[in-house]
Specification:
The protein has one domain: Rossmann fold. The protein contains 5 helices and 5 strands, in the order βαβαβαβαβα. α2 runs parallel beside α3. The longest helix is centred in the last third of the chain and has 14 residues. Keywords: Phosphoprotein. It comes from Streptomyces tremellae.
Length: about 160
């Protein structure tokens, strides 16, 4: 009687490290679209940023203090808590009110105006050129006083995923 062959599934090698030290700072990327989070994450990590992710505004508010980011990017349209309300809550909290915020969305003029009213420091329209994203985050991180400080590591088990 023949033996049934067993196959092993190999995991493809990672194309980039799962945890990248933030030579240029730590960015909290908040977007409900996993593909967009991954796109932003990879582009920022390749440029020397450490990236922590959250899937919506509620998760952002849960991780922001432990993550201690130098910059936060927020999608405008998200479930549970959208980017505009999240930005307003971050600005109302004394611990996060001075963190640079960039809101990212479809690029409608009224969204850009609403983003600035909510306290965003910058607005980036989708679709965006990754180079524009990196440039914007570098500018915001450079303006943040903690950007040059030594960072503490993200607590194990915290959101460092896409």
């Amino acid at each position: 009687m023949g033996e049934t062959g067993k196959t092993r599934t190999r995991q493809p090698p990672a194309t980039y490290p799962l945890a990248v030290s933030g030579e240029f700072g730590r960015v909290l990327v908040v977007d409900d679209n996993r593909v967009i989070r991954q796109l932003i994450r990879v582009n920022l990590e390749l440029e020397g940023f450490e990236v922590v992710t959250a899937a919506d505004g509620v998760e952002c508010l849960e991780v922001v203090h432990d993550a201690a980011p130098d910059v936060i990017t927020l999608d405008v349209v998200m479930p549970r808590l959208d980017g505009l309300r999240t930005a307003a809550l971050l600005r109302a909290d004394p611990r996060t009110r001075d963190l640079p915020l960039a809101l990212i969305s479809a690029g409608l003029q009224h969204e850009a105006e609403a983003a600035h009213r909510a306290g965003a420091d910058a607005f980036l329209a989708k679709p965006f050129d990754p180079a524009d994203l990196v440039s914007l985050v570098r500018r915001l991180a450079g303006a943040h006083p903690r950007a040059a400080a030594v960072r503490r590591p993200v607590e194990p088990g915290r959101s460092r995923r896409c």
